[in-house]
Amino acid sequence: MAGLLVVFFPLLLLAFLLFMERVEEPLRRGVTDTQVEAFLDTASREDVDNVFRYGVRRSLERWRNRRRRLPKLAALVGRQREH
After folding, report:
1. What's the domain range around 49?
2. Do 59 and 22 fall into the same domain?
3. Pair 77, 61 in one domain
4. Cα–Cα distance, 47 to 69 (Å, whole number)
5. DSSP state, 48?
6. pLDDT digits over 50-66, tens only?
7. What SS3 class is residue 31?
8. 39 and 24, same structural domain?
9. Are residues 60 and 42 in the same domain?
10. Are residues 36 and 20 in the same domain?
11. 83 vs 78: CA distance, rounded Å
């Protein structure tokens, strides 16, 4: 039993460290002025409310995710209209 612990503990620790690296990477990147300007130019009322609730970084993340999904949704809707 101790032998398994000696073998698997370093592997589990390494996997955890790699996971945490992935989690921390977006937190290290700062928000640029152009990103804030683009956000404010296209933000809805809900987006602006999110800034006050969650802060700038979280609000920009939600906004980016929504903007990434828009082209995919538009393509999906276009396919449905063709049929």
Report:
1. 31-83
2. no
3. yes
4. 16
5. H
6. 777 877 777 777 777 87
7. coil
8. no
9. yes
10. no
11. 9
Give the integer Cα–Cα distance in Å for 11 and 26.
24
Calculate helix-pair angle for 33-42, 56-82, nearest 10 degrees: 50
pLDDT at 70: 66
Does 38 share its domain with 25?
no
Question: What's the CA gap between 27 and 61, in Å, rounded?
Answer: 11
Tens digit of pLDDT per residue, the chain (83 long)? 788 888 899 999 999 999 999 888 877 777 777 877 877 788 778 877 877 787 777 777 777 787 777 666 556 556 666 55
26 and 12 in a common domain: yes
User: Which structure tokens are listed for 33?
Assistant: 């002025």
**Structural tokens at position 14:** 């390494």
User: What 8-state DSSP symbol labels residue 55?
Assistant: -
Same domain, yes or no, for 42 and 66? yes
Question: With b meaning 16 or more CB within 10 Å and e meaning fewer, what string describes 33-55?
Answer: eeeeeebeeebeeebeebbeeee
